[in-house]
Structures are given as structure tokens and as C-alpha cells.
């Protein structure tokens, strides 16, 4: 018994001394005016315990003795308050509307917003566009001045055109340089048809910074001429530990149908047009038959925290399955993310580790054929006969059957890992090593199952298979030294570094034809190469290297006067020995006027002037073009060029003529870097106690040393084309950007914010030696290669260059304007009739909060641009209608038009591309978990409904004015051509977010 008594006594003693004393703390969180803040977060520092305030701003929380509370609310400065035994803690938060101390990611580091001298736009995760998002750049659409983001089509994961302050190159397209957590991505094709950025899970992204002017981008040198997009993923935060789970389901349908004739009207119109009606007694809406309601689902689980000041982590897993509105159109992504940071040696050593892994599956239909069929097929043809897709009378393939036979299936595995240790050598001097590798591997299968009932399309009747295998490896090694020194007035930061990056792209395509019709997919069949259907193999491997030396100096005097100077030297394996390196300097200055005494008591809460000048480069040209290349050739039977001579003078057959060596490319070691020089003048300002903030910028960007593959003027040349810098030719982009944001105070539990941006931009090509450099050309019988738009001296980029339609003459044929007045209409009567690039782009957002409810609306649009409706030119003609193919009333607008009239490229098919779109709307409710008895389990429960692409105001007659599906001409990117574009969807999603 004594032993039992001692044990009990001892246990009692342990209970009293070791178990922590706990107490309940309650209170109210208010703003500076004493108004309650519902939804404010209260956490116990260093633990997972926490809660949120209710509709009256009140909270109650069980805390241990000695607890420190962290109270935070979006837009307000977080406070840390020791409990010190109190049972009541009331907190008044101060608004952080200025965001001047916000850290902005710049090249190889961060800076306070107040110290920035360049033009940098930032969007944080809470401001992102909501809904079904496959590509991270969709998060930014309409959110930032000077950044024009347009989808090429409505396909899940479709490519985006991202244009930052205009287009400044012929060859490199519009894509900016993407930097993910300090790793410079490669924009090359990964072998999957969708956007190469689709491997990133948008839920893992904490913020995106867009570097726009040369001062901000010059530190990235040779790849920064189109701007830089810096993507920062989420990290663990000190003092917090939480688990987040989100789930959503969505449904999508075609947002806008094209008004083709219904069956009854079709019967009438064919007869009235004088055509031979083929009537099959059906009534089919092929747009309905060939589209579907696409369902999507998205699940994400993340864990983050920082148990001590030394270690933080963020880990996530995600799954997204997005169906398109065409059948057999789907994008699946499985993603994982791990970010960790560890400190040692009293914080002097820090190691950051980032790992991103994804598996992406992309299933695609035959888009061009399907869209063409849904718009032009005879609506009197029944979709099905005896339960099977009707075989068309020409033995052509019913598109419903094509869905069963054709597939384009690609699977991509991608892993990106970086490790970045840094060490503070002495006070203020830090060395950092950044090691990373980005590896991508894709298998793509494009196939037609054999279908012998179709006799006029042999590839379908026999079956085909194309197998593409690609891999991309991007390795990066960077070393930097950073030195910080400051005293009361002076603050100096010096950065110096070296970067070495290698790229290896490998591709192999094998094509097969002729498979057994046994209901087994060709990809799973055996197949032997025959003389009738030989197996063909093509392969390539390209390796490039980039070595760089760079430096930057930032100097601040009294927080008033700011100076930045950067320099980068890039050496690329793409250029010849005489111009291996390019040199890219920049300078910038800023003046914080609001720090001056004469501004101190003015209406301005913040006022800063900025000015910058700098150069950036472009090396996005084909590899090895500065080196000579040869091929073997000899006279072939029938006709050809004699590139060799017989060794045996008595030779009587080709065997006596050996292969000769001929040039396919000449060496050009003098090829120079393309350079963009940019000037920027900016103004940052704030009024009304920081509630109204804004930025105003003027920029002027000039691209020179334009790189282009050209045809030699001298016909006696060993090659048909060669690469050169176009002397004196320049591309000018200038414009004005304005961004405004107003945030109200909370009054009667209601608050709102409204903001917007607008960019006015002027593009012009100057001193071009060419009459037109074609960017977009027509396709189809009798049209292939006809110029639609291009680069023309003295005109905007993407200028439409064509004949001006002037009606139908008495013979039923096209009439065009005689521009030069010589009495005849020829090619020299073509004129510039508009541009594919908008003169103005804009966006607007509004956010409303009432108690636990919130509503967010995002709009965007453009003006001053044209769209060439290639779809209309190809199929909506009177000749098509007369052959019993469906059209719109466009084909009947001229009753006197002849069936034999040609669909010549002209302004007849050019339309206004301006639009205004409600891009995104979200209604949300933050449920008080305590009201449903889950207060101890969940920190936050949020339900929301999101609509995307809810309406578009536009005069454009196609599916959507925001398109670009024209063919690239000579490697030069095309703009503003709509040819059988995948339709845009209208999407609604229901979302659940849990924090615990």
C-alpha cells in the first residue's frame, strides 16, 4: 500500500508540475474606427491552435499559459499580443493599405515595394482569377496594365499568347521568360500539344510578379526582351501550422453557337440559291451533336508550417480532371509539391529546397475536321441510322464516327528540383549556390483505327499511327555574392553572379500505316513495314548552352533617392564565334517625393517618380544556324539537279554517279544578337489615407538587329535562304499604362474595393526593306500561301494586308477597290486595313464583402484590333450552299453572287475584334465552424460558386473574338486569324475550402 501511495503521490506531483495550465481567452477584433472585423484569424504562436472571429468580430479560444496570440486580417498589419493571464483581449488592427513594405521578387532577390525603381506588376494568390484554371498565366488575365493575355482556343490547357508591352521580335513570338522559384524555365515544346506551363498546379502559387521595363528585366539579359514572369510558390510561415483541403466540381458548355441554318431553313436557302438540294429527311444540329457538357473536378491537399525559426515547409498534392466541350477532349494533371527551408549556424546557413513533380495526360480530338463538320454538314442528314453514326453519302466519315476512330493521346512526366544553399560569410556578405534540373518526358500517340467502310480517305480505311517520343533536359548552375551595407542615410546592395545553363531536346517520330481491322487500337498492334506502307522514322537532338556574368548595384539615400544599375553578359552557343556574347546594361532612378518635407502635409500619402533605361536581348533562334551544314545529293531519275559528276566516264546508270556534298546552310559567324532598348517613366501615388492608389507609366521600346531567315537577292547562291540581321529595321512599341485601386473602410459590416487598368499601345515597323513579311497566310484549296497579315514598313505589327472588298458586280463576281487608280485590280492594290494587335487593353475588378459573404467580379477586354474570319472564308460561301453544305446567312447576303465566285483574301472576311468580357465572378461564404459544432476541428470553412466567361459583348460573328489559330509563316508567329477554332466554354464550379 505504501508503494501505491507513493506512486499516486508522485503521479499527482507530476500532474501539477508538468501539465500546462490552460485558460479561455475571448475578445473582439476591430479596425481603426472601432468597427468589427468578421473573419479575422487568431492563432496561438508556435502551435496549430486557432480560430476566426464571428460576424460581430468576436472570438473565444482555449490557450495555454504564456501564450502569444497572432491576430491577422487581409489588408491589415498583423499584431502579436501576449495573453499574460488575461481572460479578455480586445485588438484594434491598423490597415496596411500602402503595401509599401511588401516584398517584391526581382532578379536574383527581393526588394521592398517602396525601393523599386523599375516597372513591376504583382498579383498575390488572393487576387487571382478563380475557377477551372489549367495554366498559371490564366490567373493574371485582365489583372495588370501592359500585359495582354489571350487564349489561342477554348481547348483545355490551350496555349496562351502573353504579350508584355507589345511584340518586339519576328522570330521569338510573344512568350516572356518564366522564372519558377529562381529557376529559369525553357519555353521549348515538350511534345505535348497543350501549354508547357500546364505542369504547374495553380493552387501551389503564392504570387506572380511581372517585370516589364528594362531596368527590371535586364538582369536576365538575352531572354528578357519579351518581359519576365516570376512565379513564386507557397512556403511555410513562421508561427503557423495548418492543413488545407479544397475540392471543386465544374461543368462547361459551349458559350456561343454560330448561327448556321437549321434543317427547314437550309432546305429553303439551297433552293433559293439555285443549288441542288440533297435532302435526307433529318433534322440535325451538328453543333449540339458534336459538343458535350464537360465535367471537371479538382482536389488539392496541402500542409504547411514552421515549427521553429529554423525550419519551414510546404507540401501539397493535387489532382485535376478537366473535360472539354468537344468529346475526347480532356486534360488530367497529377501534381506534387515540396518546399522546405532549413537554417543552421545561428541562421548564417540557409538551405532552400524546391521540388515540383507532375504527370499530365492530354487527350485531343481532330479539332479542325470536327469544327469544320459541325458548321458545314448538311443538317438534313440524320446523326444516327439504326443506332450507328450515319455513313455520309460520299462514303466520307461521319464526325461522330471520327470520335470513335481518332485519338491524340499524350502523357507527360515532368520533375523540377532545385536546391539553393546560402551562407553569410561576414556581416552583410552572403554567398548563394543555386542548382536545378528540369526534366520532361512525353509519349504521344496519334492514331486512326482502320475503318474500311470509308473508301475515299485511305489513311482512315487502312489505319495509321504516329508515335512521338520527346525528352527535354534543362540544367542550371548559378553562383551569386550579395553584399548589403547601410547606415542612417545610406543603403547599398551589390550583387554579382555567374550562371551556366544547358538545354537538351530530343525527339523521335515513327509513322506506321496499314493495320488489321480487329477493333484493337493500332498502338497495341504489331505492324510490319511493307513497300506499300513503309515505316518511317525521323529524329533530332538539339543541345544549347548559355553562360552569363551579371551584376547589380542598388543605392538608396535617406529613403528618398533611389538608384539601380545592372549589367549582364550572355554567351550563347547559338551564335557564331565573332559575336558569341551579348551585353545588356540598364540604369534606373527613383525619387520618393512623399519623404520630402514639402510633400509631407499634402494630399499625397505616397508619391514616387521612376525613370529607367536599358537593353535586353533575344536568342530565340534555331540552333546551329551560324554554322555551315551539308547534305548528300545526286541526280535522281526523271528530273533533278546534277550535283556531282561520274567518276566512271562510261557510266550508264545512277550507280556511276556517287553522292555529292552540297550546302544546305552557309556559315555566318558574324550573326549578332537581337536587342530591345527600352525607356520608362513612371509615377506611383496614393491619396485618401492610402485608400486610392495607382501607377502611371510611359514606355518606349525599340527592337533592332532584327533576326530573320531571308532569301538572297542574288539568284546565284549555294542556298535558297540564309539567316541575317536586317540592317536598319526596327520594331517600335510605345504606350501608356494606368492602374488604379480603391479600397473602402469597413462600415456596418460592409466593405468594397474596385480597381482597374488600361494600356494604350502603339506598334510600328520602321525602315523595313521588305514590302511585306508574311505572318499569317490562308489555307485551303486555291488559297494556300495567300498573305493575310504581316510586318509592313510604317504600319502596326500584324497589319492585315489585303484587297478591299467593294461588293459583287453584274457577273456575280467580287469587286475590289482600285487603290492605285491604274484601272485594274492587281496585287499592288492590296492595302493595310487594320491590325491584329489591340490598340487598347483593359481590365476591371470589383470586390464586395458583407459579414461572411463576399462577391468578386473580374472584367477584361480590348479594342482597336481586327480578326480575320478564315472559317467564314473557307465554308460560308454560296458555292458551298449550292452543294448542299450548310452555311450562315453570310453566304446569301448577295443574291446575285455567282456559284463560281472565288473566296479571295479580302476585307469581306475581316471583322472587328474588340470585346468586353465578364471573365470571372465568384460568390463566397465563410462559414463559422463554431456554429455547426466544428470550431475545434476547423479554422475556416468556405463555400463558393464561380462562373467563368459569363458574357462577351462583341460584334464578331465567330465563336469568340479572343482567338488565334492561323498558321505560322516561315517561323514567324501569326496573330488574329480564326480558322476552325475550338469554341470557348462557359463554366460554373462549386468549391469547398477547408482549413484545419
UniProtKB/TrEMBL annotation:
Cell compartments where the protein resides: Cell outer membrane
PROSITE patterns, per database record: TONB_DEPENDENT_REC_3
Chief location: membrane
GO cellular component: cell outer membrane
Domain TonB-dependent receptor-like beta-barrel: 409-950
Record membrane topology: Multi-pass membrane protein
Domain TonB-dependent receptor plug, chain residue ranges per copy: 114-228
Keyword terms: Cell outer membrane, Membrane, TonB box, Transmembrane, Transmembrane beta strand, Transport
Pfam families hit by this protein: CarbopepD_reg_2, Plug, TonB_dep_Rec_b-barrel
SUPFAM superfamilies: Carboxypeptidase regulatory domain-like (SSF49464), Porins (SSF56935)
Similarity comment: Belongs to the TonB-dependent receptor family.
Name recorded for this polypeptide: SusC/RagA family TonB-linked outer membrane protein
Organism annotation: Echinicola pacifica
Native organism taxonomy: Bacteria, Pseudomonadati, Bacteroidota, Cytophagia, Cytophagales
Amino acid at each position: 500500500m505504501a508503494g501505491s501511495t507513493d506512486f499516486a503521490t508522485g503521479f499527482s506531483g507530476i500532474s501539477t508540475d508538468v501539465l500546462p495550465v490552460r485558460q479561455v481567452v475571448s475578445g473582439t477584433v476591430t479596425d481603426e474606427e472601432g468597427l468589427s472585423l468578421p473573419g479575422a484569424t487568431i492563432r496561438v504562436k508556435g502551435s496549430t491552435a486557432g480560430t476566426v472571429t464571428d460576424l460581430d468580430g468576436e472570438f473565444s479560444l482555449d490557450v495555454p499559459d504564456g501564450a502569444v496570440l497572432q491576430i491577422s486580417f487581409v489588408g491589415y498589419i498583423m499584431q502579436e499580443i501576449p495573453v499574460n493571464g488575461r481572460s479578455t483581449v480586445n485588438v484594434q488592427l491598423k490597415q496596411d493599405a500602402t503595401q509599401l513594405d511588401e516584398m517584391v521578387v526581382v532578379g536574383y532577390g527581393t526588394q521592398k515595394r517602396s525601393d523599386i525603381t523599375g516597372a513591376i506588376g504583382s498579383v498575390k494568390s488572393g487576387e487571382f482569377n478563380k475557377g477551372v484554371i489549367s495554366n498559371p498565366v490564366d490567373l493574371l488575365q485582365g489583372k495588370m496594365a501592359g500585359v495582354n493575355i489571350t487564349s489561342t482556343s477554348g481547348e483545355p490547357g490551350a496555349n496562351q499568347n502573353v504579350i508584355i508591352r507589345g511584340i518586339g521580335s519576328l522570330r521569338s513570338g510573344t512568350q516572356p521568360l518564366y522564372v519558377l522559384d529562381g529557376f529559369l524555365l525553357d519555353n521549348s515544346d515538350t511534345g505535348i500539344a497543350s501549354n508547357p506551363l500546364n505542369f504547374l498546379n495553380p493552387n501551389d502559387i503564392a504570387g506572380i510578379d511581372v517585370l516589364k521595363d528594362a531596368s527590371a528585366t535586364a538582369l536576365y539579359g538575352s531572354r528578357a526582351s519579351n518581359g519576365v514572369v516570376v512565379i513564386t510558390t507557397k512556403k511555410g510561415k513562421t508561427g503557423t501550422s495548418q492543413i488545407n483541403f479544397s475540392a471543386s466540381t465544374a461543368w462547361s458548355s459551349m458559350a456561343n453557337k454560330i448561327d448556321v441554318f437549321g434543317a427547314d431553313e437550309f432546305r429553303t436557302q439551297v433552293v433559293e440559291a439555285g443549288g441542288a438540294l440533297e435532302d435526307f429527311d433529318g433534322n440535325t444540329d451538328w453543333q449540339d451533336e458534336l459538343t458535350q457538357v464537360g465535367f471537371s473536378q479538382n482536389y488539392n491537399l496541402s500542409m504547411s508550417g514552421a515549427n521553429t525559426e529554423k525550419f519551414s515547409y510546404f507540401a501539397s498534392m493535387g489532382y485535376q480532371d478537366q473535360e472539354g466541350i468537344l468529346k475526347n477532349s480532356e486534360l488530367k494533371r497529377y501534381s506534387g509539391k515540396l518546399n522546405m527551408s532549413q537554417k543552421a549556424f545561428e541562421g548564417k546557413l540557409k538551405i532552400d529546397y524546391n521540388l515540383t513533380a507532375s504527370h499530365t495526360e492530354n487527350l485531343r480530338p481532330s479539332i479542325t475536321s470536327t469544327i469544320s463538320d459541325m458548321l458545314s454538314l448538311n443538317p438534313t442528314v440524320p446523326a444516327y441510322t439504326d443506332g450507328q453514326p450515319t455513313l455520309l453519302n460520299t462514303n466520307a466519315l461521319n464526325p461522330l464516327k471520327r470520335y470513335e476512330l481518332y485519338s491524340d493521346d499524350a502523357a507527360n512526366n515532368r520533375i523540377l528540383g532545385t536546391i539553393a544553399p546560402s551562407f553569410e560569410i561576414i556581416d552583410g556578405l552572403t554567398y548563394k549556390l543555386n542548382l536545378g534540373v528540369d526534366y520532361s518526358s512525353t509519349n504521344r500517340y496519334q492514331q486512326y483505327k482502320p475503318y474500311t467502310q470509308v473508301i475515299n480517305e485511305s489513311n482512315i480505311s487502312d489505319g495509321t499511327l504516329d508515335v512521338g517520343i520527346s525528352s527535354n533536359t534543362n540544367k542550371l548552375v548559378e553562383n551569386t555574392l550579395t553584399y548589403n551595407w547601410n547606415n542612417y542615410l545610406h543603403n547599398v546592395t551589390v550583387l554579382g553572379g555567374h550562371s551556366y545553363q544547358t538545354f537538351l531536346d530530343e525527339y523521335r517520330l515513327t509513322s506506321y500505316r496499314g493495320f488489321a481491322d480487329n477493333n484493337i487500337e493500332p498502338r497495341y498492334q504489331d505492324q510490319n513495314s511493307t513497300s506499300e506502307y513503309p515505316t518511317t522514322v525521323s529524329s533530332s537532338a538539339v543541345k544549347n548552352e548559355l553562360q552569363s556574368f551579371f551584376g547589380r548595384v542598388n543605392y538608396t539615400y535617406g529613403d528618398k533617392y533611389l538608384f539601380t544599375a545592372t549589367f549582364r553578359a550572355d554567351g550563347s552557343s547559338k551564335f557564331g564565334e565573332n559575336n558569341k556574347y551579348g551585353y545588356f546594361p540598364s540604369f534606373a532612378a527613383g525619387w520618393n517625393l512623399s519623404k520630402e518635407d514639402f510633400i509631407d502635409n499634402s494630399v499625397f500619402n505616397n508619391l514616387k517618380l521612376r525613370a529607367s533605361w536599358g537593353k535586353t536581348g533575344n536568342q530565340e533562334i534555331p540552333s546551329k544556324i551560324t554554322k555551315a551544314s551539308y547534305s548528300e545529293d545526286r541526280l535522281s531519275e526523271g528530273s533533278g539537279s546534277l550535283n556531282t559528276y561520274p567518276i566512271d566516264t562510261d557510266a550508264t546508270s545512277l550507280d556511276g554517279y556517287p553522292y555529292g556534298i552540297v550546302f544546305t546552310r552557309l556559315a555566318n559567324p558574324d550573326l549578332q544578337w537581337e536587342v530591345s532598348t527600352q525607356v520608362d517613366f513612371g509615377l506611383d501615388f496614393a491619396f485618401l489615407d492610402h485608400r486610392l492608389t495607382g501607377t502611371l507609366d510611359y514606355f518606349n521600346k525599340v527592337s533592332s538587329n532584327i533576326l530573320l531567315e531571308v532569301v538572297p537577292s542574288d539568284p546565284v547562291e549555294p542556298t535558297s535562304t540564309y539567316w541575317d540581321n536586317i540592317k536598319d529595321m526596327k520594331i517600335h512599341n510605345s504606350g501608356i499604362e494606368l492602374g488604379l485601386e480603391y479600397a473602402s473602410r469597413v462600415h456596418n459590416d460592409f466593405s468594397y474595393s474596385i480597381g482597374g487598368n488600361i494600356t494604350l499601345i502603339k506598334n510600328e515597323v520602321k525602315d523595313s526593306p521588305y514590302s511585306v513579311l508574311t505572318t499569317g497566310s490562308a489555307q485551303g484549296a486555291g488559297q494556300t500561301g495567300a498573305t493575310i497579315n504581316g510586318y509592313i514598313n510604317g504600319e502596326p505589327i500584324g497589319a492585315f494586308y489585303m484587297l478591299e472588298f467593294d461588293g459583287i458586280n453584274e457577273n456575280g463576281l467580287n469587286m475590289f477597290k482600285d487603290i492605285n487608280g491604274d484601272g485594274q485590280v492587281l496585287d499592288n492594290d492590296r492595302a493595310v486595313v487594320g491590325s491584329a494587335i489591340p490598340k487598347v487593353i483593359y481590365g476591371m475588378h470589383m470586390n464586395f464583402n458583407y459579414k461572411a459573404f463576399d462577391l468578386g467580379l473580374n472584367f477584361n477586354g480590348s479594342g482597336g484590333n481586327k480578326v480575320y474570319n478564315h472559317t467564314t472564308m473557307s465554308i460560308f460561301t454560296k458555292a458551298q450552299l449550292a452543294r448542299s453544305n450548310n452555311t450562315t446567312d453570310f453566304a446569301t447576303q448577295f443574291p446575285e453572287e455567282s456559284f463560281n465566285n472565288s473566296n479571295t483574301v479580302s476585307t469581306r472576311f475581316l471583322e472587328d475584334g474588340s470585346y468586353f468580357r465578364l471573365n470571372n465572378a465568384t460568390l463566397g461564404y465563410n462559414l463559422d465552424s463554431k456554429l455547426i459544432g466544428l470550431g475545434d476541428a476547423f479554422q475556416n470553412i468556405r463555400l463558393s460558386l464561380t462562373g467563368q466567361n459569363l458574357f462577351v459583348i462583341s460584334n464578331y460573328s465567330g465563336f469568340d473574338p479572343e482567338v488565334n489559330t492561323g498558321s505560322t509563316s516561315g517561323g514567324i508567329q501569326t496573330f488574329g486569324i480564326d480558322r476552325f477554332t475550338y469554341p470557348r466554354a462557359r463554366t460554373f464550379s462549386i468549391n469547398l475550402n477547408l482549413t484545419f
